[in-house]
Write a structure and sequence with these properties.
This protein is of the alpha/beta class. Helices cover 38% and strands 18% of the residues. An eight-stranded parallel beta sheet has the order 7-6-5-4-3-2-1-8. Strand 2 (56-59), helix 3 and strand 3 form a beta-alpha-beta unit.
Length: 233
Amino acid sequence: MSNAYGISDNIKRVRDVIAGAAEASGRAPGDIALVAVSKTRPADMIRQAIAAGVDAVGENRVQEMAEKNAQGAYAGAPLHFIGHLQSNKVSKVVGVCDLIESVGSLSLVEQIGKRAVSLGIVQDVLIEVNIGREPQKSGILPEQMDEILGLSAKTGGIMVTGLMSVPPVNDEFGKSCNYFDAMFQLFVDISKKKYDNVSMRFLSMGMSDSYIDAIRAGSNMVRIGSAIFGARF
């Protein structure tokens, strides 16, 4: 199908905005990975986004991901799992996704590692950080980072390639920027330490309504849904 949804044009606009934010933070546009968030989107729309050059596709729900994967929706782009990962769904994600962005507990590190070892692979993951300390959200608190990275260093089958966060929604001017800045500082601090099975490559933060500020604060991976695909239907 041709560009029926304007997806290619939307991606171009998003890329232009990314370029401006990257240059404002002293980086090249190509330094920022664009992940198309395809929750509720049909396979045809995902194929259009891949054809238009997104760097990866991110899915939130395991069952939906499995259904669309069976349709070949993700062919040609890395697949990320970005939603809350339940323990009983680990086996359906490890080895299927190129990157699991939402590892927010010690038990998930152990379960992912065990599954990956059984498959004879190394699974790339990001540690999810609950930077806003919101009780309803999953994720590791900043002061728990040494513990989870220490566990990751001892766990076969897993490679921590960075951090991910979804800061609190806040209309107060500059508040989100404070969270982004705190995440970047945490990313820098961890990058200076030496852990086995840990290589700080990605800082995934910023969505359709916040990715400019996130990039300016140091994010090098943004997760964009509505700005690419339009409002959900």
